[in-house]
Write a structure and sequence with these properties.
The structure is a single chain. With 215 residues, the chain is of the alpha/beta class. It contains 8 helices and 8 strands, in the order βαβαβαβαβαααββαβ. It has 2 domains: 108 residues, 3-Layer(aba) Sandwich (Rossmann fold), CATH 3.40.50; 87 residues, Dna Ligase, domain 1. Helix content is 39%, strand content 17%. The strands form 2 sheets. The protein has a 5-stranded parallel sheet with strand order 3-2-1-4-5. Strands 7-6-8 form a 3-stranded antiparallel sheet, covered by helices on one side. Strand 2, helix 2 and strand 3 form a beta-alpha-beta unit. Helix 4 packs antiparallel against helix 5 and helix 7 packs across helix 8. It is elongated.
Length: 215
Amino acid sequence: MLKKLLVANRGEIAVRIIRAAQDLGIATVAVYSAADAESLHVQLADEAVNIGPPAAKKSYLNVEAILKAASDTGCDSVHPGYGFLAENAAFSDAVTGAGLVFVGPSGDAIRMMGDKVSARSAAAAAGVPVVPGSAGRVEGLKAGREVLTATGLPVMIKAAAGGGGRGIRIANSLAEFEQAFPQAEAEALAAFGDGGLYMEKVIGKARHIEVQVLA
């Protein structure tokens, strides 16, 4: 049974995790950037640690600062929430390597499915139909134009390390594509610390069916 959990996230995500943990009798530690010092998740947690300035890259994506906060407060586990480092295999490995419980998938599972390019490849190898798109990460506008020519318009530009709808753009023309590609790249880098992108053909009027698997 976990005794003390550090929640490596902020906002509503962190609030839900903290409340669930407290219902189970697990002590909680919130982390926050300087901009979030007065946030609800900071107030609800049993303890809170400032892990850096407002920029996510220097706080919520700062693995060293998060692990130090967990160590300094005597936590035995870390919950990443979703977004930020939740789908970062190196973070999962770092948490378990520090002797803590990572409340989430193993690093190997994240490497296969957290990176959307790897997930597409794994699905295709298993015979699962995938949406037409790039065979791997798209390295720059020139490579993106080649994928665009092969798949046709409209296309979706997506963050390879993405989650929560961040780093996604739809392009209905070449002009839109050339504007959207660097925007998606910058947003992905800011949100996940990884600006890698891939592309897929847009499926209009699709129905979204999502299945959650607890392993």
